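Please decode residue identities from the backbone states below.
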């Protein structure tokens, strides 16, 4: 069996207390049977605190009224790691935000967008994202026809979206064509709104502005705020023009008609 990681994967490391959106709050963190049994039999001085923070009936960590895990301290750090070591984490806490895709002849590990640090790593990755072989027992297993076709399709799709000799618009068109997708005006409007808004959150000026605010540097705050506002205005106008062009092209409406639809919806810059 072969084991792969996606090429950006080695760059990931949890930033712990520096994370602005902790993964230790807002959802139910279930504990696997092996780890739950280990917690039950823990004999260290931390054992009383450990048992108090676990709902053994539901096999999950208790949370406070704000949904924060019982072991997430005021510094944004995990008390289990501090007292028992990272090896004592349950599987979900140990793996997150990593995920695995299992195939008939191997498995592949990547990172999920549910983590802000993972998201930054993926979106700022300069090279093409490719699977990297890290383990091979040389025991070849034959792929089924369906899996082979799915993986071939995925590779073609990746080659299209990562072809940086073409514009994002051309790549989007090629990907939609590959999928034989038919979209209407509202579909394209949603796609463009979501993608442009999401990527805009990671512009360099926003990051520098936030750093200046964190450091309380008034001079840099004023400077980067001005640059940030200017870039936002440019992006808004560019995004609006791109939206009109793409909507007109894929809906057979004139640019004039599309512009009128956006104006009525309040989407003019």
């Amino acid at each position: 069996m072969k084991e792969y990681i996606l090429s950006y994967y080695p760059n990931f490391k949890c930033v712990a207390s520096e994370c602005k959106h902790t993964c230790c709050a807002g959802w139910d963190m279930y504990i696997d049977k092996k780890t739950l049994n280990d917690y039950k039999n823990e004999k260290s001085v931390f054992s009383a605190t450990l048992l108090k923070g676990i709902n053994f009936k539901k096999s999950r960590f208790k949370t406070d009224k704000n949904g924060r895990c019982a072991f997430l301290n005021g510094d944004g750090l995990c008390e289990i790691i501090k007292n028992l070591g990272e090896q004592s984490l349950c599987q979900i806490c140990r793996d997150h935000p990593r995920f695995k895709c299992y195939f008939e002849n191997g498995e592949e590990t990547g990172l999920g967008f549910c983590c802000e640090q993972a998201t930054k790593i993926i979106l700022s990755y300069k090279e093409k994202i490719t699977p990297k072989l890290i383990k091979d027992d040389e025991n070849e297993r034959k792929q089924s026809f369906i899996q082979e076709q799915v993986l071939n399709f995925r590779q073609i799709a990746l080659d299209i979206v990562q072809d940086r000799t073409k514009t994002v618009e051309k790549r989007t068109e090629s990907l939609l064509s590959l999928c034989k997708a038919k979209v209407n005006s509202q579909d394209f409007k949603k796609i463009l709104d979501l993608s442009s808004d999401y990527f805009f959150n990671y512009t360099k000026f926003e990051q520098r502005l936030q750093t200046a605010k964190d450091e309380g540097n008034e001079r840099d705050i004023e400077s980067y705020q001005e640059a940030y506002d200017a870039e936002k205005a440019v992006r808004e106008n560019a995004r609006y023009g791109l939206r009109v062009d793409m909507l007109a092209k894929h809906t057979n409406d004139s640019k004039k008609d599309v512009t009128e639809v956006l104006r009525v919806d309040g989407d003019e810059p």
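Observation: The first helix runs from residue 33 to 40.
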